[in-house]
Amino acid sequence: MFVKFENNKGVHIVGILGPDENVADWTLVDDSLMDARRIIKDGDTIRAATEEEVAAELAELLVSSTARSLTWKRDEALRASDNLVLADRWASFTDAQKAEVTAYRKALRDLPTLTGFPLAVTLPTAPVL
């Protein structure tokens, strides 16, 4: 079994290298690692990751994917509210409505800086005008 490592983590695993593959890019490893959830390279040692290492990596992936998703939703909400601050529309709002829109858009922009971002925060609710 051949493994290609990036940052000391096995990222590609194949049984047979294709003719276009450079053998120098791959490491031949023992087939006993076939069932490993993650293959780790510690210096000259190649081993299966521990359950703790796998859990930590999955937790990191959850945080980063949730952050990307929440940031995308936040950006979409900001774009959707852009029409509220156009001069002609803005002029028709009461001072209370202006304050509500301003607070909403500020809360959206501040979202990534909140403690607990991204797992323990939610998007603010859009004002109903």
Brief sketch in words of this structure:
This protein is an alpha+beta fold. It has helices at 51-81, 87-90, 95-110; strands spanning 2-6, 9-14, 27-28, 39-42, 45-48.
Q: What does it look like?
A:
With about 130 residues, the protein is α+β, with helices and mostly antiparallel strands. It has two domains: about 1-50, no CATH class; about 60-115. The protein is built from three helices and five strands; from the N terminus they run βββββααα. β1 (about 1-5) and β2 form a beta hairpin. α1 packs antiparallel against α3 (about 95-110). The longest helix is centred in the middle third of the chain and has 31 residues, at about 50-80. The protein is elongated, with a radius of gyration of 24 Å. The protein starts with a strand and ends in a 19-residue tail after the last helix.
Helices, strands, pairings?
Layout: E1 2-6, E2 9-14, E3 27-28, E4 39-42, E5 45-48, H1 51-81, H2 87-90, H3 95-110
Antiparallel strand pairs: 1-2, 1-3, 4-5
Helix pairs in contact: 1-3
Number of helices: 3
What does the radius of gyration come to?
Answer: 24 Å
Q: Describe the global form.
A: elongated
Unreliable stretches covering 5 or more consecutive residues: none
What is the CA–CA distance across the termini?
A: 62 Å
Q: What summary fits the major beta sheet?
A: 3 strands, antiparallel
Number of DSSP E strands: 5
| Count of individual domains | 2
Mean pLDDT figure? 95
Secondary structure: helix percent? 25-40%
> Within the largest sheet, what's the order of strands?
2-1-3
